[in-house]
Amino acid sequence: MANITKKVSWSSRADESGATGEGTPLLNGSEQPRYSRQLSGGGSIFQIGRLSTVDLEEELTSDEDSLRGRPKEIPHNEKLLSLKYESLDYDNSENQLFLEEERRMSYIGFRCLEISRWVVCGLIGFLTGLIACFIDIVVETLAGVKYLVVKENIEKFTEVGGLSISLILWAVLNSAFVMVGAVIVAFFEPIAAGSGIPQIKCYLNGVKIPRVVRLKTLVVKVGGVICSVVGGLAVGKEGPMIHSGAVVAAGVSQGRSTSLKKDFKIFEYFRRDTEKRDFVSAGAAAGVSAAFGAPVGGVLFSLEEGASFWNQMLTWRIFFASMISTFTLNFFLSIYHNNTGDLSNPGLINFGRFESDSVAYNLYEIPLFIAMGAIGGLLGALFNVLNYWLTIFRIRYVHRPCLQVMEAMLVAAVTATVSFAMIYFSNDCQPLGPEHAEEYPLQLFCADGEYNSMATAFFNTPERSVRSLFHNQPGTYNPLTLGMFTLTYFFLACWTYGLTVSAGVFIPSLLIGAAWGRLFGILLASITSSGSIWADPGKYALIGAAAQLGGIVRMTLSLTVIMVEATGNVTYGLPIMLVLMTAKIVGDYFVEGLYDIHIKLQSVPFLHWEAPATSHWLTAREVMSSPVTCFNRIEKVGTIVDVLSNTSTNHNGFPVVVHVAPGDEPAKLCGLILRSQLIVLLKHKVFVELARSRLTQRKLQLKDFRDAYPRFPPIQSIHVSQDERECMMDLTEFMNPTPYTVPQETSLPRVFKLFRALGLRHLVVVDDQNRVVGLVTRKDLARYHLGKHGLEELHLAQT
């Protein structure tokens, strides 16, 4: 782990040791000056507040590290920038090959491509809906068998004594399921842990997360979430559907499987980051739609997370994928329930129908709703802070797969024990009438014809528990039951999120909020004489669920629409919006949202929508990396190979320059070429001398680059002989001749907007004569997004 990240520290001088590349925390030149042209005039540019890197394990060489294995304690710093993350090349490289292909394509060809995009989106929605249907059916079946076995065992030993055997049975069943889910995640595909929403947020933001959209990740994610939910953990299966939809989109849109090494020779035009990222947006939206039955909410989720690149047709295609997804899930679930054609199950979580009469609200209730939003923000902030420190502990001490599996099994056993204890000591008995639709009513010590109300909350899947809190008649739960359940489930959910299992936080958040929201409504009814008229507990359970979820994840626009669509009633659109906004404002005062916290803990160079508020005094000159490693328009092959092989830099973008006069430094910019393009050129031996000697040599096409995408071979796998090193390579035809550039004095907010709005990976900084003086990458911007304290520190360094 010491070789994966580097500590980022402030320094008031320029980095003397050279820079790392796009795949490293810093991009500030090369350690080998013979391949680096210091176009800033030998570092004469005044650079203040630059970042320097310090190895976390300076005393430990790579050989020693490999012998000792992982360190016992992994150092942590929330301002780390990880070496393993790169940016997506969302901006098209409009080189000569690209322009020639576009010009050769007829109008009918463009229309066929557009039709293909719609077909791909339809397939994405269909397959995502099928996966959601499979997960739902398997979870309901296995959970039903488990709860039925435990229920019969409890009823048996209630009369004859020995309920400890029932507790052991419950704990063993939970631990067994969770062990299977944790093993496949920890040992086979760790990226499948959690809900996957932070990773998909990063992907839509423009960061390439390793292995996040692999087929193997999808298989482990689906199997893991089934085991987690059936194992009784305080988790939900809805969040992972967003990740699953994104993986489906990434696979279908490429027309091949790199994992299975199977190429279907279709959709080859879409094999580039530009198209793939658009389809992943559609997949994420289809996942939201399948999870919550909220196609519009799915579109807004993708828009909210990464949509600087949107256009009208893309929006319609994403909406189409969302509609197909929810329809597919509806249709196949209706067949499963022997009611073909009844499309009443739009998503995995079904809140049930909120009738207008039961959810009517008055103007004087809006302040109460806002107060509940503030409570949700406070509880959400507490949840996030506790989970943050738990995650820090796991990063440092529970980083081995075997320990991760053991922790997951421990949490499963503790969850079963706490649930059993709450049910055992509860004396909240409710009459079991014909109107009660309890799936597994547990009598325990209640009289005949009654059931234990606490068992309704614990002895069930979280989705059914949420629905019962929304729709059960007033008087179903007493305040003590709801209070104890809220307290215990809050800490169980906080402990559970972050385990090495596939699981989401949406449903636990809704369940916690629904419990204290219903308690809020009961207390209101008890202190007002007319409480039975307006203080309906189900109504306040809905508001509490929205407040708690908003306080934890801090989503506003998309979550409002998702909640409205899931309830099937637009009446509560305004209260839900006010509640979510209040929860976000209150929660943001203390700590960031849960997903943003985990993105930071993963050291991802995530770019927010706006630059720091007080950053207008910063310019591109302070932010950029320099000196820059550049190539000539016609460059020596040996020089290119040496630069690409330099592991201390690992650059991914290189300005191509031309010298107006011999020895002219710095040289003028004439284009930009990527590492991936150079590797393909080296692989195909596109050398000037060979092109002259082989008149019949096939001309390189864009198809050659698409065939190598996305797993371009490493430079070490390409053999270049000593004679070939002396050859020359002409980059004119393959470089992007029109890269985006900014002057040195461009303000940081303007640079930031260009990056986010255009989805850039590299932004070249030039002087007034178009000479390269620096390069801005995502990590250069991400490290400056430090908030008020970091900017004040930088300002002090400059003054």
UniProtKB/TrEMBL annotation:
Q: Where is this region: Disordered?
A: 1-41
- List where in the cell it is found: Membrane
Query: What SMART domains does the record point to?
Result: CBS
Give the transmembrane region(s): 118-143, 163-188, 218-236, 279-302, 314-336, 366-390, 402-425, 480-499, 505-528, 540-564, 570-591
Q: Look up and give the membrane topology term.
A: Multi-pass membrane protein
- PROSITE patterns under this entry? CBS
InterPro entries for the chain = CBS_dom, CBS_dom_sf, CIC-7, Cl-channel/antiporter, Cl-channel_core, ClC
What are the entry keywords?
Answer: CBS domain, Chloride, Ion transport, Membrane, Repeat, Transmembrane, Transmembrane helix, Transport
Q: Which family does it belong to?
A: Belongs to the chloride channel (TC 2.A.49) family.
The UniProt gene name for this protein comes to: CLCN7
Task: Cite the GO molecular-function annotations of the record.
Answer: chloride channel activity; chloride:proton antiporter activity
Q: Compositional bias (Polar residues) at which positions?
A: 1-12, 27-39
Entry GO terms, CC: lysosomal membrane
Database matches in Gene3D superfamilies: CBS-domain (3.10.580.10), Clc chloride channel (1.10.3080.10)
**Chief location of this protein within or outside the cell:** membrane
Name the record gives this protein: Chloride channel protein
